[in-house]
């Protein structure tokens, strides 16, 4: 199955009394496999193993994996937390201001508790120390990658259908070139005969010049090899699509080879219809190359 390089996967895995692990994996086009991990600091030691999980499933694309931890409260009673250092700062600054302005009285604890950030109510979970074991993290990453790969495969199959259609169109254009090529050769041959007759009509016959002209003509008009290679490359392209898997790189190489052969035919073309067929082939091939850039 052909796969694209774009996709998204998300999963949440609960750990009972441990934290809930949420993983989001998304990928976009990239020439190589480029992995970016965003893990909480407490799970930084798992990044190497996580990277290996991604490498085992994907071969190309920019892949971003984001992991978050949500503490499981288990019905814990909300707790009031007091930031003593911040409260002390408020009190000291208030007393200092009072002395500078000559104000009497003193601040109260009630006043300090009303200052922003001094008192807060949480759900009782120690979010600063929440963590998760590697098996739970690996399970979450694996499931997110499952969804990511499935979506890449679905998109890849849609691209494969489009590529097969374009490939058939390009094949028909190549056959049009093959049909028109003899007429182009005949026209160039007629011009060569006129040139040779002009040489023969002169006072002296330069046999070396005649041989040179004939060799140049043969080289410039014969596109048999180019057409044969085009047919071979088209067959290889179709076979790779049928094979599936990570075929983006070999298909990109074949697209370059197809482009090279088409350009050679165009350089040799001395016929309007053949030139038009070459232009049509280049237009179809450009659409093929654009789609190939999306494949893994």
Strand content: 5-15%
Span of the ends, CA to CA: 11 Å
Q: Order of strands side by side in the largest beta sheet?
A: 1-2-4-3
In terms of structural class, how would the helical and strand content be classed?
Answer: alpha+beta
- The stretches of 5 or more residues where confidence is low (pLDDT under 50) are none
Number of helices: 8
Record field, number of beta strands: 6
The amount of helix comes to 55-70%
Report the major sheet. Answer: 4 strands, mixed
Question: Could you report the average pLDDT, rounded to the nearest whole number?
Answer: 86
| Element string (H = helix, E = strand) | EEEHEEHHEHHHHH
Calculate Rg over CA atoms. Answer: 36 Å
General form: elongated
List the helices and strands and how they pair.
Elements: E1 7-13, E2 20-28, E3 33-38, H1 47-57, E4 61-70, E5 79-82, H2 84-101, H3 109-113, E6 119-122, H4 134-200, H5 207-221, H6 224-243, H7 248-268, H8 272-292
Parallel strand pairs: 3-4
Antiparallel strand pairs: 1-2, 2-4, 5-6
Defining key terms:
296 residues; alpha+beta; Ribosomal Protein S5, domain 2; four-stranded mixed beta sheet; 14% strand
Explain what the structure shows.
The chain has 296 residues and is an alpha+beta fold. The chain has 3 domains: 7-74 and 128-152, Ribosomal Protein S5, domain 2, CATH 3.30.230; 79-122, no CATH class; 155-292, no CATH class. Helix content is 60%, strand content 14%. It has helices spanning 47-57, 84-101, 109-113, 134-200, 207-221, 224-243, 248-268, 272-292; strands at 7-13, 20-28, 33-38, 61-70, 79-82, 119-122. Strand 3 (33-38), helix 1 (47-57) and strand 4 form a beta-alpha-beta unit. The mean pLDDT is 86.
């Amino acid at each position: 199955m052909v796969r694209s390089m774009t996709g998204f996967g998300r999963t949440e895995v609960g750990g009972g009394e441990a934290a809930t692990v949420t993983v989001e994996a998304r990928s976009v086009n990239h020439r190589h496999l480029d992995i970016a991990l965003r893990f909480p600091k407490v799970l930084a030691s798992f990044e190497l193993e996580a990277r290996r999980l991604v490498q085992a499933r994907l071969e190309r694309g920019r892949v971003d994996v984001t992991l978050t931890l949500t503490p499981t409260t288990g019905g814990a009673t909300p707790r009031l937390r007091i930031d003593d250092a911040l409260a002390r700062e408020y009190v000291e600054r208030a007393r200092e201001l009072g002395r500078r302005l000559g104000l009497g009285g003193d601040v109260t604890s009630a006043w300090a508790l009303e200052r922003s950030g001094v008192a807060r109510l949480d759900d009782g979970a120690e979010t600063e120390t929440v963590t998760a074991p590697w098996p739970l993290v690996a399970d979450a990453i694996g499931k997110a990658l499952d969804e990511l790969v499935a979506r890449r495969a679905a998109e890849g199959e849609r691209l494969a259908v489009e590529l097969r259609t374009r490939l058939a169109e390009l094949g028909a254009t190549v056959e049009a070139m093959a049909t028109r090529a003899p007429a182009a050769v005949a026209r160039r041959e007629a011009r060569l005969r006129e040139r040779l007759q002009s040489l023969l009509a002169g006072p002296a016959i330069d046999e070396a010049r005649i041989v040179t002209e004939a060799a140049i003509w043969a080289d410039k008009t014969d596109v048999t090899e180019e057409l044969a290679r085009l047919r071979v490359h088209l067959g290889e392209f179709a076979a790779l699509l049928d094979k599936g898997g990570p075929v983006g790189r070999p298909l990109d190489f074949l697209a370059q080879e197809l482009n090279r052969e088409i350009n050679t035919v165009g350089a040799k073309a001395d016929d309007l219809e053949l030139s038009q067929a070459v232009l049509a082939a280049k237009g179809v091939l450009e659409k093929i190359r654009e789609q190939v850039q999306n494949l893994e």
